[in-house]
Amino acid sequence: MKRWRLAYLVTHPIQYQAPLLRMIAGQPEVSLTTFFCTDFSLGPYADPGFGKSIVWDIPLTEGYTHEFLPVWGGKDSLSFIQPWIYGLKKRLVEGRFDALWVHGWGQLSHILAVRTAHRLGIKVLMRGEAGLHLPRHGTFKQWLKDRLVHMLFAQVDGFLAIGRPNRDFYLRYGVPEERVFMMPYAVDNAFFQEQVRRAVAGRESLRRELRLKPGRPVVLYASKMIERKRAGDLLEAFVRLSPDGRAEPPAYLLLIGDGDQRPALERRGARLGWDSIRFLGFKNQTELPAYYDLCDVFVLPSVAEPWGLVVNEVMNAGRAVIVSDEVGCHQDLVRNGVNGYVFKTGNVASLHAALAKVTSDPSDCEKMGRESLAIINEWSFREDLFGLNQALANVMRVV
After folding, report:
1. Model confidence over 150-186: pLDDT tens digits?
2. Host H or E run for residue 31
3. Domain range enclosing 268
4. Sheet containing 297-300: which strands, arranged edge to edge?
5. Could you tell me the pTM of the whole model?
6. Same domain, yes or no, for 217 and 94?
């Protein structure tokens, strides 16, 4: 059996990707080497979305072969130009790689890498987050971007689609259907399910710590508190759960995360004078499963959200989910009325209606949670490995 030598180019170590890379590295079909453009995420770094310095509490580079490419200039931030890497061509030749897998085309270094591999006769695989659900603007800039994307895609041999909106995006740009392979945007299901199982024993202790009375549903938000995430829409929809606009709703609202919108949201919550709203700040990867276990329903009301991997995480806890129609995962993971609801982005009345349905019927909410778990069990790293191997076999012309 041929063992393909695969190079993977990505900007930096990413918490969601590390376990997948470890799994790929353990497969007999692929010899994987990951090339990073920068290492800034390995230690404390200033995240502009959270508005604070964070450090991940899980290993990001263990268990797979990796290298950090040399860089001209700064490497502490990401932009179209930075980091400006060099030396990849030499490594591709020295490593005798069969294929280069590139994550996204938002950096010039990635675009140049595709061109380099194509000229060397190395097959190119592309995986990105773009989707047809994301807004488009009829401007010259959009026209120019479309032309450049067409030119880039002409040098790519196989496309690894993270979901249906992403797959449709490639097809819209003229990519033949036979060159698109599903490699779902997944999280480490085994990790999150195990963490949730461990959290069950401490559920009541956490409930007491947060001063949550038994029997009241818990609504959870966990994301950056920035304008694009629209946590304010959730807060206003929650307010409408009040029977008269003054009395507290019959549910609790927990908001996890930080960002420039948090002070305004906290002021709005304080003006209500209710005891049912909690702002809990940033929580790390190993802390989140306990809150997923504690909640009854999770809400992500974002606008222009490429995917929303936090939804995957919560579904591993077997919980109902409510998302806007601009959250990329909704077409694949959220089945309206089955494991949650999809509402029109920015429509607070529609979000309120979905919240009211879920929080008013505990048995139906639990049923939705069971459906979430069943759906996410079929959207995992197992499917990722299958899609990657299928793509490699196809582009290398192996039957």
Report:
1. 999 999 999 999 999 999 999 999 999 999 999 999 9
2. strand 30-36
3. 189-376
4. 277-281, 252-256, 218-222, 297-300, 320-324, 340-343
5. 0.94
6. no
